[in-house]
Write a structure and sequence with these properties.
CATH topology: TIM Barrel
Family: Belongs to the aldo/keto reductase family.
CATH architecture: Alpha-Beta Barrel
Structural class: alpha/beta
Active site: 55 (proton donor)
Mean pLDDT: 95
Number of domains: 1
Low-confidence stretches: none
Order of helices and strands: EEEHEHEHEHEHEHEHHEHH
CATH class: Alpha Beta
Keywords: NADP, Oxidoreductase
Protein name: Aldo/keto reductase
Distance between the termini: 40 Å
Strand content: 5-15%
Helix content: 25-40%
InterPro entries: AKR, Aldo/ket_reductase_CS, NAD(P)_OxRdtase_dom_sf, NADP_OxRdtase_dom
Largest sheet: 8 strands, parallel
Number of strands: 10
Length: 283
């Protein structure tokens, strides 16, 4: 029997509550296996599910969500569902249409959070205006961005009516994004981590392993706990039930201030994914 773990939530700048730990599905193919994983995640206690149009798996994610609701593991209003628009030069109208297509694929009436996936070369203002419309019409609970650097955010804020609720970026001990996190904090933008485990590369790090041994935890749990203690929302991905349970089991210990500093010191400004200033929408 799988025990359900309660995950704490953080309040976004519009008052919406977002779970601080969620379930990511990047690079997971459409199909029954993903549907089953989403059901399992919700049964375990995950309430935030993160996908994107470009992942090509919104249908399976939606099927899993609706199955979990049907089986009584959670009500829709207790879940926090995120998707992202792949804005490679989209117009205002095309962005609205993209949102509607995501809803249709997922079989949902609304999303809790809708993000612009990449800034591109100043390609985000029309999509942002569309997201503002969706928000004003109460078709989505919160809107935000992903992979935005300080320069992108400064330009967006100069021209936007609504401050993004979230900025989802690559974040882990090898890429601590200190200046960006401080900028977002001052603007009331919640930072969310993708690739929190650096595609698994961090799990072999000696410093992290020693800390895991000290706490009788796994390296993944150490890194995810580090995320939460920095006030960063995190969305680890796994299709393995044991690891999914491991990732959620981080509420029974805390890292000391010295340990947090030690992990911060691992920073090399090293990315496992693309640089947002150079990304050209080709994958």
């Amino acid at each position: 029997m799988i025990m359900s773990i309660k995950i704490d939530a953080l309040e976004l700048n519009n008052g919406t509550k977002m779970p601080e730990l969620g379930y990511g599905v990047f690079r997971v193919e459409e199909g029954a296996e993903l549907e089953k994983a989403v059901v399992s995640a919700i049964k375990m206690g995950y309430r935030s599910i993160d996908t994107a149009a470009i992942y090509g798996n919104e249908k399976s994610v939606g099927n899993g969500i609706r199955q979990a609701i049907k089986e009584g593991f959670a009500a829709r209003e207790d879940l926090f569902i995120t998707s992202k628009v792949w804005n490679d030069g989209l117009t205002y109208e095309e962005t609205i249409q993209a949102y509607e297509e995501s809803l249709e694929k997922m079989g949902l009436d609304y999303l809790d959070l809708y993000l612009i996936h990449w800034p591109g070369k100043n390609q985000y203002m029309e999509p942002w205006k569309a997201l503002e419309t969706l928000y004003k019409e109460k078709r989505v609970k919160a809107i935000g961005v992903s992979n935005f650097q300080i320069s992108h955010l400064e330009h967006l804020l100069e021209n936007a009516e609504i401050v993004p609720a979230v900025n989802q970026v690559e974040f882990h001990p090898k890429l601590t994004q200190t200046e960006l996190r401080e900028f977002c904090r001052k603007q009331g933008i919640q930072v969310e981590a993708w690739s929190p485990l650096m595609n698994g590369d961090l799990l072999k790090n000696d410093t992290i392993q020693k800390m895991a041994d000290f706490h009788s935890k796994t390296p993944a749990q150490i890194v995810l706990r580090w995320d939460l203690q920095h006030g960063v929302i995190t969305i680890p991905k796994s299709m393995n039930e044991a690891r999914m349970l491991e990732n959620i089991g981080i509420y029974d210990f805390k890292l000391s201030e010295e340990q947090m500093d030690e992990l911060d010191a691992l920073n090399e400004n090293l990315r496992s994914g693309p640089d947002p200033d150079e990304f050209n929408f080709k994958i």
